[in-house]
Amino acid sequence: MRDPWRPAMRLALDEAERAVRGGDVPVGAVVLAPDGTAVLAAAHNEREAVGDPTAHAEVLAVRRAAARLGEWRLSGCTLVVTLEPCTMCAGAIQQSRVDRVVYGARDEKAGAVGSLWDLVRDRRLNHRPEVIEGVLADECARLLTEFFRNR
Ligand SMILES: [Zn+2]
């Protein structure tokens, strides 16, 4: 069976590669419209590029998608990201009300969507997006491994 999230993850991977040019860790994200295919926003990690500790790919993508829609609520949308979100991004995802989070590689050291924490699926929260992990996980992880090896 073909994974329907692969094309969007490829776009996120393209974004992740752009991060490297600015000296940033290669993480990329896209926000898909409720139809599941139209891309509302794309972003990559820009922490080094802009000197902003909150400039993670997910936060930037969610902000751009909201700006494009003209409202903060991203109901029905899907966030696709190459690496498991951290606590900050899991918070932004929760606040944005996206319906679904799709990620590639796990982040065993800082992941907040299944690894160290599982913030977005905490039963105490009334909005809990669906989570799909492991899409093109090897490619997503390889990009990171190569980046850190070349540093
Ligand atoms: Zn993050």
Low-pLDDT segments, ≥5 res: none
Mean pLDDT: 96
Strand fraction band? 15-25%
Helix fraction bin: 25-40%
Helix/strand order, N-terminal first: HEEHHEHEEH
* N-to-C span: 38 Å
Tell how many strands the DSSP assignment holds: 5
Q: What hetero molecules are in the model?
A: zinc ion
What overall form do the CA principal axes indicate? globular
What is the alpha-carbon Rg in Å? Answer: 14 Å
Largest sheet report: 5 strands, mixed
Strand-pairing-aware structural class? alpha/beta
The number of distinct helices, counting runs of at least 4 residues, comes to 5
Give the strand line-up of the largest sheet: 2-1-3-4-5
Please give a handful of descriptors for the protein shown.
151 residues, alpha/beta, 5 strands, 37% helix, globular, binds zinc ion
Question: How does this model look, in words?
Answer:
The protein has five helices and five strands, in the order αββααβαββα. It is α/β, with parallel strands linked by helices. Strands 2-1-3-4-5 form a five-stranded mixed sheet. Helix 1 runs parallel beside helix 5 and helix 3 (57-69) runs parallel beside helix 4 (87-96). The longest helix is centred in the N-terminal third of the chain and has 16 residues, at 6-21. 43% of the residues are buried. Zinc ion binds next to helix 4.
Question: Would you spell out the secondary-structure blueprint of this structure?
Answer:
Layout: H1 6-21, E1 28-32, E2 39-44, H2 47-50, H3 57-69, E3 78-83, H4 87-96, E4 100-105, E5 130-133, H5 137-149
Helix pairs in contact: 1-5, 3-4
This protein binds zinc ion.
